[in-house]
Design goal:
Layout lengths: L8 H23 L2 H22 L18 H8 L1 H32 L6 H8 L1 H4 L2 H11 L6 H9 L15 H26 L3 H9 L4 H29 L3 H6 L11 H10 L4 H32 L1
Helix pairs in contact: 2-14, 3-14, 4-9, 4-11, 7-9, 9-11, 11-14, 13-14
């Protein structure tokens, strides 16, 4: 007959102590999370919440220390009726769309090129990163000089090649100023796209390409049926990061054109800056910033939906 288990008082005490120790360890693990959580709350969540709260009030420089009224969504209605908002939103979409398109296409082509082994590959790849590592102020100033109408290198090259007959004021004409800033932003973003896509290409299994070669598949067929499907998660992440970064570009356009001429290169970040720090209507500036945030949140939701759909098909 099996004897019942007998536990002494010491064993019971040790069991209680072990439970208490586990509880203390579980609570102490949360203490290591508190600094990071506090940083996120203070520097991320609180500014976002305060910006939304500011957008539903009437806060200007004249009543900054006085009575501030709650106006609800009146600021949003004012912004949506403003013609400058429509111009800024349109320019932001054009700026973001064209920048992402050319950055991705050229970056992908360079990634495919540097994925091959040849002498000097590492040195050339490192030199390509200079465009991305260079400060925005320097890059914007250089492109402002190169695109100058009188002494710009860009006009000199185009005239030498016979593309244009007379100099073009790329940054001071309404038809070309936005595209001049897009050209500079494309140059900045190509190395980042190249590095991310190159890392994705180097992680692809080689045996799939060897099997495709044995089956007689051409390089184009390998690219369409092997490379692109396997690179889809990397491409989605890259495009999402590119849209978020490009949509909020401020310093490049501010230095090169200042939004001009005649608001031809005016984008949403410049619009929010003008309302907040030139006209000192802080609530309207916060409203534009909130609209930008909601647009990016919507794009992020689309990205997460596509990513989940991608995971379900695997």
């Amino acid at each position: 007959m099996q004897q019942p288990e007998v536990r002494t008082m010491g064993q019971k005490t040790m069991g209680i102590k072990s439970v208490k120790t586990k509880g203390i360890r579980s609570w102490s693990s949360y203490l290591f999370v508190l600094p990071g959580l506090g940083f996120l709350v203070f520097f991320m969540f609180f500014p976002i919440a305060y910006n939304f709260w500011l957008s539903v009030k009437d806060v200007k420089v004249t009543n900054l220390n006085g009575e501030q009224h709650f106006v609800g969504f009146a600021n949003y209605a004012t912004i949506f009726k403003d013609e400058l908002f429509t111009i800024s939103l349109t320019n932001s979409i054009i700026f973001t769309g064209l920048s992402i398109l050319f950055q991705f296409v050229i970056g992908f082509a360079l990634a495919l090129f540097f994925n091959k082994r040849f002498p000097g590959r590492d040195i050339m790849r490192s030199l390509m990163l200079l465009a991305w590592l260079m400060p925005i102020v320097i890059t914007a100033t250089l492109f402002k000089w190169m695109l100058a109408g009188d002494y710009g290198v860009f006009n000199y090259l185009l005239q030498t090649l016979g593309v244009i007959q007379q100099p073009v004021s790329w940054l001071t004409e309404a038809d070309t100023s936005l595209y001049g800033t897009i050209l500079a932003n494309i140059w900045i973003g190509i190395p980042f796209n190249m590095i991310i896509l190159l890392s994705g290409l180097q992680s692809l299994p080689d045996h799939l390409y060897e099997a495709a070669k044995l089956d007689g598949a051409s390089r184009f067929q390998q690219f369409v049926h092997i490379t692109l499907p396997l690179m889809r998660p990397t491409i989605l992440v890259l495009l999402m990061l590119g849209v978020i970064y490009t949509f909020k570009v401020f310093d490049l356009i501010f230095i090169m054109t200042g939004g001009g001429p005649v608001n031809a290169s005016f984008v949403l970040p410049l619009y929010a800056y003008q309302l907040s720090f030139i006209t000192f209507d802080f609530s309207l500036g916060a409203t534009v910033a909130s609209i930008m945030f909601l647009i990016l949140i919507a794009l992020s939701a689309v990205y997460l939906w596509m990513l989940r759909k991608e995971e379900q098909t695997l």
